[in-house]
Amino acid sequence: MTTTDPSVGTDTAGGSAPFVKSVVELDRVVIRLAGDSGDGMQLTGNRFTSETASFGNDLSTLPNFPAEIRAPTGTLPGVSSFQLHFADHDIMTPGDAPDVLVAMNPAALKANLSDLPGGGLLIVDADEFTPRNLAKVGYATNPLEDDSLDGWQLVSVPLTSMTLDALADSGLGKKEAERSKNMFTLGLLSWMYHRPTEGTVRFLERQFRRKPEIAAANIAAFRAGYNYGETTEAFAVSYEIKPALMAPGRYRNISGNQALSLGLVAAGQRSGLPVFLGAYPITPASDILHELSRHKSFGVRTFQAEDEIAGIGAALGASFGGALGVTTTSGPGVSLKSETIGLAVMTELPLVIVDVQRGGPSTGLPTKTEQSDLLQAMFGRNGEAPLPVIAPRSPADCFDAALEAARIALTYRTPVVLLSDGYLANGAEPWQIPDVEDLPDLRVQFATEPNGATPDGTPEFLPYLRDPETLARPWAVPGTAGMQHRIGGLEKADKTGNISYDPANHDLMTRLRQAKVDGIAASIGPTDVDDPVGPDGRTASVAVIGWGSTYGPIGAACRRIRRSGRSVAQIHLRHLNPFPADLGEVLRRYDRVVCPEMNLGQLSMLLRAKYLVDVQSHTQVRGLPFRAAELAAAVQDVIDSTSGAPLAADPAGGAE
Amino acid sequence: MTTIELGMPAEGPIADAIARSLETQGEKQTTLKAKDLKTDQEVRWCPGCGDYVILNAVQSFLPSLGIAREDMVIVSGIGCSSRFPYYMNTYGVHSIHGRAPAIATGLAASRPDLSVWVVTGDGDALSIGGNHLIHTLRRNVNLTILLFNNRIYGLTKGQYSPTSEVGKVTKSTPMGSLDHPFNPVSLAIGADATFVGRAMDSDRKGLTDVLRQAAEHQGTALVEIYQNCNIFNDGAFDLLKDPTTGVQWSIPLVHGKPLVFGPDGASCVVRDESGGLRVAETAQVDADDIVVHDATREDPSYAFALSRLSSQDLRYTPMGVFRAVQKPTYDRMMADQVEEARTSSPADLTGLLAGSDTWTVGA
User: Is the complex ipTM more than 0.90?
Assistant: First the structure.
């Protein structure tokens, strides 16, 4: 931290003498906004994120909210928070712990204070620390006054009353005006971190275009917060985080669910096929339904079904008709869809099944993240029902993962499970906008001519005569003359697709379906291994392997470990089934393999079973992403126990 | 003879494939014979099953619609009746127990240029698939649903079904079943179905007549077909099939005609005091009080009241078309929304990916 360029604050309040405000340059900061579910913390966080993205910082976000829409006001279960990590360099996680905590009421303080390291900046809305609100969360005395917060830099600001003062002439009632306190807070933070403000003003005008008085009030509160920061003596310092060095190109900020939706639209455009989404609302996947329903001009049809089963059923029916059928859900929905997924395996039709994983089992933790549906995706069906499984590694990567899911589904005529999760779905990061021409070509060839002949020589269509390379069956859509055929869930005779109970045929077909999925490995390239040569000129003897949203925390942990002078390899899997063809060989290169997962060891079970490699599982299921420091410490222990010569540096310290 | 006009598929790979197939196959064949609809698959229902009669009736009548084989899709669930698609030389999906309406909805909603049929049974449609059935009916997707009702589970060998009468003794109910049954017609009208009819497997003329009206209907049409299972529930509909008792207990529904039935027209249907309908002796009422059948009445309560004249033992069973009203179809409205969106904002993928807030990092 270096102090540079002191500037003079402009004093518009009049009276007091101008005072000097200094600007401190930081390389990164983690801010957590916490308030009641009704306080608009998610909106505030998203706006601050947009300002930060357009400023050019790298960033990563972690929204964290309760399953209840509005738990009783001011209580601990009602606390909603939004954490944003932004930096002048590329970062991989939303940050282990905040540097700054904004608490809009006593409940938000109580729920989040233990995460704020000693000395951290703590901004609270003093107006909300009333005896009633304090009593609701069990504070016997007011923490703002009893010295219990001495270990932090406490700045107690009357956010609510200043918002009301700023809106005194707005014509709004007290209750309505109070709602703008989140915009006042956003204004203050925007000043503190030198964020551009035009985007937020434009957003508020757009958002409330039918209620101009509300738009005006929010903009007034936002500006008042900004000006307050500029003039008050409560904040003597503001901070500058320079734009991050990023690859040249055009960028936008994007969440995982948004990226996934755009990837599906792009897959429709690149294949030329209409996209048909059959879905039933479920947290945290519903935003994909919302987003796709806005893109009808791309020929996207969205069908909100009566239940999860009808959602996937309709999608499969549309696939039979030649559409790119898609269904989106979370774990409980996959449970309901499993019979139809089995039908898709049997009928060998393209289908994309998106599972935005959440805490389970049963209803579990609907708004929290977990990656515990991997084995369900792999095996959660009756019979031998293999299907490809892929996972995105970051919010923006959901775009590419959606295209890859569509590629596999269309090329191999198979259902594909795409495993996103709650953290990817709601988290956001900058995304370099790709050129449409660079996206994969997903065009398909529908069958239009007979591909066989009956014993008497009459040409006939054999719906299960496979492509010798991909083992995919031909896709003939209704309306195509002469290609009439019947498919279904009963076992198919090889080539003809007629019902067959023949023992040898069932054995053959079971193996063919497996071979088709295994064969996808030929199209996916080698394992992605990050194993830089260390300072001692050696590559690592310990590898960390992961999948899905743990990419960020594992990557950040590996950076810490490498900074401590140790070597470590990071392997991250996009394809969970089939694995890349060289994966077994890659794993055997390392003395030890550690597999961190937000479940009880599902990938490590698959790896151990398939490759007989002694994978060491490191797991947690807290509904939250891993903390990089904790992961680094765990991996460091493995490295040191392997090398026998522990190094002194502590990888748990320092930044990403 | 009416022919049904199907639209064209939207431009794109699907339309291209269809056009290519016609280059080699010649023009669409819309003049078919019953044998054109048969497949090389051996029909595997029990000898004497009512399903054979229905299959023959459907194969004989379908050509009169003037639809090419490749434009017809038959989707079924699980059960004896659901083997139907294998015996029809059209496109077909033999799907999962109860889910045929859902699968057919996705197909019909994305391809309004097809004639989509659902073949289902009383267990398939009303038990495991009850939810899909009612929602499909209320949405009014352009589908024709043939519900084969034999009032028993046949494929699982003889358990009672959701249309079995109370007290039915079966393998799973040795002391008699306790469930009150569904009346499928009442259920469909309750779900605001736009077309509901009922026919008997052995009545070729009546069945064909109802099927034709159902096929011509724009929207979801449900036809309940009483079908005899000669193995597990033989004679279930004998009361209505027997020439003597049949006349006595069946009420033929003819649009625009008074509801008079029974030997010599001795019985009729009149309004009862509580607003419903009841059966009366024709000689005892004013001719003006006899209800004239109107299947096009918007308010479903009349058709519902008609369906409630029946008791579990089939005494008074209206046969024919209960209700046939016009409402916008789901697939058409969905296609219209897509068209409207395309007109107001043409697809621009580059613009969509960029969104409204971007920034540029220079080289």
Answer: yes
